[in-house]
Amino acid sequence: MTLTQLKYVITVAEAKSMNEAAKQLFISQPSLSAAIRDLEDEIGIEVFRRSNKGVSITPAGEEFAGYARQVVEQYRLIETKYVEKTNIKKKFAVSTQHYTFAVKAFVEMVKQFGMDEYEFAVRETKTYEVIEDVRNFKSEIGILYLNDFNEKVLHKLFAEYGLEFHPILDCYIYVYMWKGHPLAGRKKVTLEELEDYPCLSFEQGNNNSFYFAEEVLSTYHYKQLIKANDRATMLNLMVGLNGYTLCSGIICEELNGSDYCAIRLDSEETMTIGYLSRKGAGISSLGQKYIEELSKYEDKALQ
Fold first, then answer.
1. pLDDT tens digits for 142-165?
2. What secondary structure letter does DSSP report for 16?
3. CA 211 to CA 146: how far, in whole Å?
């Protein structure tokens, strides 16, 4: 196995075409195909599935490509520092369900690290994509929640993908709405009292199983349910339709403004928010700082 072969796999995976990858790599298509077949024979897995329509990466190939990206990136960093002797940009990426406090922790991490050059990424995305991003080394850390309903299924998936879940916060369930909502002045509300208002939920795309829902109580039969795919739309629907969503109760007025509130749902059910990482992989100094910032919200949980 060579570094060149790893670069070939990454290029083909991204181009989704042997011909296009060969053009990008400035080699012939037969030479590229032969190099990848030699690699597949050596490692004993089929990385790409060939057909008359072209190539597609296999599940085993996806995992291999994730490791390949990590190796190639580490080599690039070594080459930059010790061969080219230039400054290295610090890199860090986190994928998260739609939690404002997770974005706020990212903001504080960036402010405090005090670096002149960096390339960071924060991805608010679907639950399954959070898991996939960490699995494929696209993000070092993934932020999501577990509860009694989804933990068995998700822990099984984490084990299959070589991931570990680390708890950070335990929270009761809150109802998130705008302050002009008819129920906004209450200390607690019940699901029955919310029946006349639309429940808002984040769209999960093809992986729309109840186990991947961002909101707890996903199996409850809501009379009115609207799915959205971004936080800005969700906030607009709260104001325009008196909609609501279920959340951890941890809100950040610095980012979302002061027009919204979180009211405790009349339920003893809880959720645990934590971070995903690759099993056995160390957490970078940037990742440790980010987790430290997340942990500061512990005193706001279970209130």
1. 999 999 999 999 999 999 999 999
2. T
3. 9
